[in-house]
């Protein structure tokens, strides 16, 4: 197990190409913006769906 951990760290140091600090910042902002947009879209669909279901049950009750 210890050998596996040592080899994993070696691979991270030598074989992984890490982004620059500027790339990491811009990608973080991009992910945050798309997360906000996606959450607003889900909120909108949920709101519309709950209104439709509410109107349906109000109509059923008469």
In helices, the fraction of residues equals over 70%
Strands, count: 0
Round the mean pLDDT to the nearest integer and report it: 95
* Percentage beta strand: under 5%
Which residues form runs of ≥5 with pLDDT under 50? none
Shape: elongated
The helix/strand series, from N terminus to C terminus, equals HH
**Oligomer category:** single chain
| Tally of DSSP helical segments | 2
- Cα distance spanning the termini: 67 Å
Class computed from helices, strands and strand pairing = mainly alpha
Q: Main β-sheet, in a few words?
A: none
The Rg value, from CA coordinates, equals: 24 Å
List the helices and strands and how they pair.
Layout: H1 2-14, H2 21-61
């Amino acid at each position: 197990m210890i050998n596996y951990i040592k080899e994993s760290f070696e691979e991270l140091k030598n074989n992984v190409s890490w982004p620059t600090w500027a790339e990491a910042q811009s990608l973080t902002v991009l992910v945050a913006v798309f997360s906000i947009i996606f959450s607003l879209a889900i909120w909108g669909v949920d709101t519309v769906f709950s209104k439709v279901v509410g109107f349906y049950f109000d109509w059923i009750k008469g």
